[in-house]
Amino acid sequence: MTTPSPQPPSPASPSSSPSSSSSPSSSLSPSSSPSRIRIGSAPDSWGVWFPDDPRQVPWQRFLDEVSGAGYAWIELGPYGYLPTDPAVLTEETARRGLRVSAGTVFTGLHHGPDVWERTWAHVAENAALAQAVGAGHLVVIPSFWRDDRTGEVLEDRTLTAAQWRDLTGLTERLGREVRERYGLRIVVHPHADTHLDDEESVTRFLDATDPEAVSLCLDTGHYAYAGGDSVKLIETYGERIGYLHLKQVDPEILAGVVAEGVPFGPAVARGVMCEPPSGVPALEPVLAAASALDVDLFAIVEQDMYPCEPDVPYPIALRTRRFLRSCGV
User: Fold this and answer.
1) pLDDT, average across residues 260-280
2) Which residues pair with 299 in a beta bridge?
3) How many CB atoms are closer than 10 A to CB 180?
4) What is the dihedral of CA 162, 164, 165, 168, to 10 degrees?
5) 23, 145, 151, 260: which has the highest count of C-beta atoms within 10 A?
6) If 0-12 CB within 10 Å is exposed, 13-18 middle and 19+ buried, where does residue 133 land?
7) Are 62 and 90 in contact (CB under 8 A)?
8) Helices (H) and strands (E) in the chain, counts
9) pLDDT attached to residue 16
10) DSSP string spanning 153-187?
């Protein structure tokens, strides 16, 4: 049985008003963060994976609760979940003391030039909305090699040399065109069940791409899912880290997932992504390593929880924000 969640402050209350000195947005604004790390959360942490799904919380509730939990920044999530009219979205976020850090797109650029036009159409609508609401980044996630719900193998999990050239070359093109047309920086997100997941594939990708065109969104949970060391990656490729997703995995559940070959979607349903600080990697050293870079950096909490009961996310968000404050951010 699910315990009802505490009620977030009303958008009109002093604790969440953008003009209040005690609001989340004022206490976590970029100018007042000593570590230069800006903390936020995302629809993913509220169990949102799709533009429309009856098992997901309404977007109004997500905005109310993410603000009430003390976050000042959000991502757009799947295109169409939040309002796609920039004026409406700007009004709805501003009155809750929220700002948008990034949009998100899925791509399959290793398939080569034949997918460029279709990919660009998808990217452009997301980038246009992100730009219109003041975001500075576009998170780019590679396509899955197996279906994340059914486990159906869609293609070989290992790229050929030609596919690597297409992936790196077209991602550079994407980065340049998104920057030129929309003023956004792309940050490529290694992800479970994609061709970019572990240390070998991530470092190969970074070594083969132009730092001026392509940065990395380091998702600490996904990288740990594939056996990677986030602190080592930050210390080795610090100049390429353009964005962070803060996430942890449950090592015991992960061991079972790996042993059984469970796809990512069912693994999430098992609880493989867990509430900090109960999993790995430890986030304190990750944040310390990121702070040592001495650059402005978003760190967005993303605890994959699809599907989940609607009253589950908010108490977790409150506890996670409290924990991150104890880490100095």
Assistant:
1) 96
2) 39, 244
3) 9
4) 160
5) 23
6) buried
7) no
8) 12, 10
9) 33
10) B-S-SS--HHHHHHHHHHHHHHHHHHHHHH--EEE
Q: Which residue type sits at 175? A: G
Using a pLDDT cut of 70, give the percent of the chain over it: 89
pTM value?
A: 0.89
- Distances, alpha carbon 7 to alpha carbons 20, 65, 92, 208, in Å: 19, 8, 18, 48
| Structure-token pair, residue 207 | 């070594």
Check residue 24 and give its pLDDT.
34
The Cα 133–Cα 119 span in angstroms is 22
Least Cα distance to 64 among 15, 101, 115 occurs for 15
Backbone angles phi, psi at 210, to 5 degrees: -80, 120
- 274 to 77, 191, 282, 301, 317: CA distances (angstroms): 19, 16, 12, 12, 12
Write down the H helix ranges in the chain. 24-27, 59-68, 86-94, 116-132, 161-182, 199-207, 220-225, 230-236, 251-260, 264-270, 283-292, 313-326
Residues counted in the chain? 329
